[in-house]
Write a structure and sequence with these properties.
Elements: H1 7-19, H2 30-50, H3 54-87, H4 100-121, E1 157-162, E2 166-171, E3 174-178, E4 183-187, H5 188-196, E5 200-205
Antiparallel strand pairs: 1-4, 1-5, 2-3
Helix pairs in contact: 1-3, 2-3, 3-4
């Protein structure tokens, strides 16, 4: 499969990986090309955000999110196929279709499996039935209308792209309304909350 790396290409490649039993042929530079493409998208988002071109910035944000999601799923599918081929000793299933990075991964599996088998056979692996429990006392972050009781000296701010209309959200002690495609500056702690809740996209720290 050949073509310029973009959101449509990754979406098409994912469909092929899901459909096909064997690895889909991809360029040897695939992983590097995708990383460059994602970085280029981030640069375009920064440029259009600076220009206050919210519609084009929003388009690039959607392309970035979809591309990152599809890229991760492609990698997961390819890894599962490589592991299956190795476990069944069916090298022909992947031979000729591995990128240099995947070839290293495939070859490293042999040594890993061999070492693990030796550990099992000779009692080298020590299991500990008493696994310590780590208590998580962190609380879920929420946007609150209670103002901070301490000064936010040196507080970082971030640009945030709003994905949908938000009514009466409490930010820094004030109730405000946000409109879809707004681009605004917020303290990072609020930007993170909006991003995690899927209401917007944190763009960059300023």
């Amino acid at each position: 499969m050949k073509g310029d790396i973009n959101e449509a290409y990754l979406s098409s490649l994912l469909r092929l990986e899901v459909k096909n039993y064997d690895l889909t042929p991809i360029p040897s530079t695939f992983y590097k090309d995708v990383r460059n493409y994602l970085e280029d998208l981030k640069g375009k988002i920064d440029i259009e955000t600076t220009k206050k071109n919210s519609r084009l910035a929003g388009k690039y944000i959607m392309d970035l999110e979809n591309s990152e999601k599809n890229f991760r799923r492609i990698v997961e599918r390819r890894i599962s196929k490589i592991l299956m081929a190795k476990s069944l000793e069916e090298k022909e299933r992947v031979e000729g279709h591995l990128t240099p990075e995947e070839q290293i991964f495939y070859e490293s599996l042999s040594e890993t499996i061999k070492n693990f088998l030796e550990e099992l056979l000779h009692g080298g692996i020590i299991t500990n039935p008493e696994i310590p429990t780590i208590k998580n006392e962190s609380k879920k972050e929420t946007v609150t209308d209670e103002p901070s009781t301490k000064e936010d000296e040196g507080e970082e701010y971030a640009l945030v792209y709003i994905k949908q209309d938000i009514q009466n959200i409490s930010v820094m002690g004030e109730k405000i309304n946000l409109r879809k495609e707004d681009i605004l500056t917020l303290p990072v702690k609020y930007a993170d909350i909006i991003d995690k809740q899927g209401l917007g996209k944190k763009l960059k720290i300023i």
